[in-house]
């Protein structure tokens, strides 16, 4: 660490360290003065509403009051009488975190990063990787900025990071290629949660690095909030629920933004309505951008191509729509939604620009979810989720860059996926030494993949792999022990069985002397990964909470790692699957300290993970074209990559803080800081490829009930810890951002809308040439240059 810090050479390093020192000093003074109260003018900064998250654990604790539906059910009244008295719940009037306040989650056993609705509206971004790019411990793959960027957590991506929407897998093909988009648009998302640690046991071993969970209201779990104000679902009401049943309600929201760097326009409309026992939702959105501006020439190894100040072949277009509804009954609800996602975007880089490569993707997804709280002594809640995805995208481009008439489909990816997950949360019981709450889960999923290529019909190399399919069946259990209000523990376990079916040739032995490929061999491997975790939460002095978590997680190889057998233009690799791969095992320890209230809020985490049989693409140094026979030929353009296994160690840490310094002009001003690093090496000391650099940053802010003003500088150090073969170092950069936003209530009778938030955000204000070290195209693709984004949201 000290070696890395000595490499601070650019403007901003010293100021960031001073900000961190100031924050630490202020916290020390605050603890020394405890339990003294904050000054009256700072009261708004110390009363921070709790952040509600849904992804980390299947155990949800609720305080059931005297007049709740559960208690009413025990009074002896009939079910019909209860239904008459209590219809569908109304959406709570939630106390959202104040604008610009750092959301810190302290009631979970591992670090949870939350991006609330208002921050999503301010930050924008066409992909989850863009939205999360600067969060501590997280970045994006940035293969095609604004169009294709998958979240990377602590240096882990694709097959080790799960992405879910409203509790089910996002579908798509983003884990099969870094050029593929994530079919979840932030424009239609209300909250994003990034969960590390034991969440892997809830969502599957392919979430070993973490889970990115996006939520929205496409399947309503409550009536619209313009109905009489009730508490959260299942809690007491301020008016008889029956009155809500006779009062239909409609709410609407518009989301609009313009960006200068890419001449981008985005807009979305969300509608919610309900009455009686029904609630409905509909939304539609769309965005379009042109080639984005860049501050310098993008191609490091070729200075001969015209660019004209923009990243060639980087334009995007996307749209989507969804409609859903829910039926509420005594003690629960059931709902469904159908969603359509469409995206047409270009792939930047030399090869993409030469061939005018673009991806035309379409996803149709059906989701069902529900919840039921029976009047039972043993069962608290039953929940279920189900989803079915039909995904297809065509990779389109010129077969011959010199012949515009050769434009056509070069590759097609399809993914048909189904998933069902059910959880049963049992009633807490007193085990004398602790109050114990248990949740049991069952999950089953099926996936069929194909990647045919019209360029090679009827040949062994017809795409990356033959059609393959996989089936996963899993069971898991979470147990929470509340020893006291200050001390809690969690023990969780998961076992799953995975069966895969596909074909792959044995490279290179399948080639006969005459060059004719041998018949493909059918393979049907199966695996039974087993995982477990244990965690402890402890309240500490000064409003802090400490946590320690240990995990043992096994992951089965995925189809692409087993069955790949051809050129993959996105990564510029010729991928060779390994049918002999075994289960990958991760042993992790994470320590964290967090504080969510008071004028100084922070979270700090350190972790260590040892992988046995870590699966990765091993570059051999041999170059290939479209088939194995071409490997080693002069002029070949694809790096031969064989899926291999080695032991590896990941260690790192994250820190972010926010300090309310004091009152100024009727509001609060303060400073904030962040820091993250990850170091990943194989057992022989060589570097794991594509690891994010050390980053540190900080800034100042001012906020009141309406305004938020902020300036932040994030410095990324140069990344010189690169793989031995075919990975180049990446220069450091400074990312300067500034924003001003205004939020206010409106008089609907005068303005039509009842609430507005609008603002302006400046990105990369130093117009730096930013290359993302984890991107396969970093030597040919620059991140967008200086730009301004103006946005406005109205609620009706």
TrEMBL record:
GO terms (BP aspect): siderophore transmembrane transport
Positions of the TonB-dependent receptor plug domain: 110-211
Membrane topology according to the record: Multi-pass membrane protein
A cellular component term, taken from the record's GO annotations: cell outer membrane
Keyword Transport included in the entry's annotation: yes
Biased segments, Low complexity type: 85-94
GO molecular function: siderophore uptake transmembrane transporter activity
Major location (coarse): membrane
Domain TonB-dependent receptor-like beta-barrel span(s) in chain numbering: 316-745
Top-level lineage group: Bacteria
Entry keyword annotation includes Phosphoprotein: no
Keywords: Cell outer membrane, Membrane, Receptor, Signal, TonB box, Transmembrane, Transmembrane beta strand, Transport
InterPro entries with a match to the protein in the record: Beta-barrel_TonB, Beta-barrel_TonB_sf, Plug_dom, Plug_dom_sf, TonB-dep_rcpt-like
Region (Disordered): 73-94
Leader peptide range in chain numbering: 1-28
Subcellular location: Cell outer membrane
Pfam families noted in UniProt: Plug (PF07715), TonB_dep_Rec_b-barrel (PF00593)
Family: Belongs to the TonB-dependent receptor family.
Name of this protein: Iron complex outermembrane receptor protein
Organism this protein belongs to: Bradyrhizobium stylosanthis
């Amino acid at each position: 660490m000290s070696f890395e810090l000595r490499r601070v050479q650019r403007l901003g390093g010293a100021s960031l360290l001073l900000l961190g020192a100031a924050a630490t000093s202020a916290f020390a003074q605050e603890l020394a003065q405890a339990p003294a109260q904050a000054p009256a003018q700072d009261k708004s900064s110390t009363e921070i509403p709790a952040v509600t998250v849904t992804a980390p654990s299947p155990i949800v604790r609720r305080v059931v009051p005297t007049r709740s539906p559960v208690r009413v059910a025990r009074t002896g009244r009939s079910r019909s009488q209860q239904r008459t008295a209590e219809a569908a719940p109304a959406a709570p009037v939630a106390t959202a975190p104040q604008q610009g306040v750092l959301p810190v989650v302290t009631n979970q056993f591992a670090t949870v990063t939350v991006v609330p609705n208002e921050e999503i509206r301010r930050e924008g971004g066409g992909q989850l990787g863009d939205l999360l790019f600067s969060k501590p411990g997280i970045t994006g793959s940035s293969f095609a900025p604004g169009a294709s960027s998958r979240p990377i957590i602590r240096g882990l991506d694709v097959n080790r990071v799960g992405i879910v929407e409203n509790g089910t897998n996002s579908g798509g093909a983003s884990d099969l290629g870094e050029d593929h988009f994530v079919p979840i648009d932030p424009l239609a998302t209300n909250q994003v949660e990034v969960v590390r640690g034991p969440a892997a046991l809830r969502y599957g071993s392919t979430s070993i690095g973490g889970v990115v969970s996006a939520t929205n209201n496409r399947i309503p779990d409550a009536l619209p909030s313009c109905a009489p104000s009730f508490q959260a679902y299942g809690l007491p009401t301020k008016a008889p629920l029956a009155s809500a049943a006779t009062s239909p309600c409609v709410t609407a929201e518009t989301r609009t933004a313009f960006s200068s760097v890419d001449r981008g326009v985005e807009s979305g409309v969300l509608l919610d309505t309900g009455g009686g026992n029904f609630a409905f939702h509909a939304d539609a959105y769309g965005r379009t951008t042109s080639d984005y501006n860049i501050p310098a020439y993008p191609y490091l190894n070729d200075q001969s191509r015209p660019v004209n100040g923009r990243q060639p072949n980087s334009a995007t277009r996307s749209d989507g729509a969804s409609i859903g509804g829910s039926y509420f009954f005594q003690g629960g609800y059931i709902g469904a939604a159908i969603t359509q996602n469409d995206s047409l975007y270009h792939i930047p880089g030399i090869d993409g620009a030469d061939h005018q490569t673009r991806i035309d993707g379409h996803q149709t997804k059906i989701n069902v979810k529900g919840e039921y709280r029976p009047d039972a002594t043993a069962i608290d809640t039953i929940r279920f989720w189900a989803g079915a995805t039909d995904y297809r995208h065509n990779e389109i481009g010129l077969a011959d860059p010199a012949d515009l008439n050769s434009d056509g489909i070069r590759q097609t990816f399809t993914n048909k996926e189904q998933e069902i997950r059910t959880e049963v949360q049992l009633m807490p019981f007193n085990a004398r030494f602790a109050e114990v709450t248990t949740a049991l889960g069952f999950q089953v999923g099926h996936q069929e993949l194909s990647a045919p290529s019209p360029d090679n019909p009827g040949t062994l190399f017809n795409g990356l792999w033959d059609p393959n399919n996989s089936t996963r069946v899993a069971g898991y259990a979470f147990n929470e022990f509340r020893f006291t209000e200050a001390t809690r523990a969690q023990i969780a376990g998961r076992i799953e069985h995975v069966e895969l079916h596909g074909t792959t040739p044995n490279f290179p032995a399948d080639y006969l002397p005459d060059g004719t490929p041998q018949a493909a061999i059918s393979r049907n491997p199966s695996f039974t990964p087993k995982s477990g975790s244990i965690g402890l939460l402890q309240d500490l002095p000064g409003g802090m909470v400490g946590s320690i978590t240990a995990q043992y997680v096994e992951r089965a190889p995925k189809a692409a790692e087993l069955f790949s057998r051809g050129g993959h233009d996105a990564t510029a690799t010729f991928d060779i699957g390994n049918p002999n791969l075994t289960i990958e095992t991760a042993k992790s320890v994470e320590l964290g300290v967090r504080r969510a209230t008071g004028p100084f809020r922070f979270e700090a985490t350190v972790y260590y993970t040892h992988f046995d049989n870590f699966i990765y693409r091993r570059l051999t140094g041999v170059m290939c074209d479209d088939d194995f026979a071409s490997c080693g030929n002069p002029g070949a353009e694809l790096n031969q990559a064989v899926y291999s296994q080695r032991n590896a160690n990941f260690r790192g840490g994250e820190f972010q803080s926010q300090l309310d310094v004091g009152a100024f002009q009727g509001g609060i001003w303060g400073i904030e800081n962040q820091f993250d690093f990850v170091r990943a090496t194989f057992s022989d000391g060589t570097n794991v490829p594509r690891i994010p650099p050390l980053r540190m940053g900080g800034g100042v802010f001012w906020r009141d009930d309406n305004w938020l003003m902020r300036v932040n500088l994030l410095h990324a150090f140069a990344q010189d810890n690169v793989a031995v073969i075919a990975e180049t170092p990446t220069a450091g950069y400074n990312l300067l951002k500034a924003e001003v936003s205004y939020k206010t209530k409106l008089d609907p009778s005068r303005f039509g809308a009842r609430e507005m938030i609008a603002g302006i955000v400046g990105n990369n204000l130093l117009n730096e040439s930013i290359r993302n070290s984890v991107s396969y195209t970093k030597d040919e693709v620059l991140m967008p240059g200086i730009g301004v984004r103006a946005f406005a949201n109205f609620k009706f």
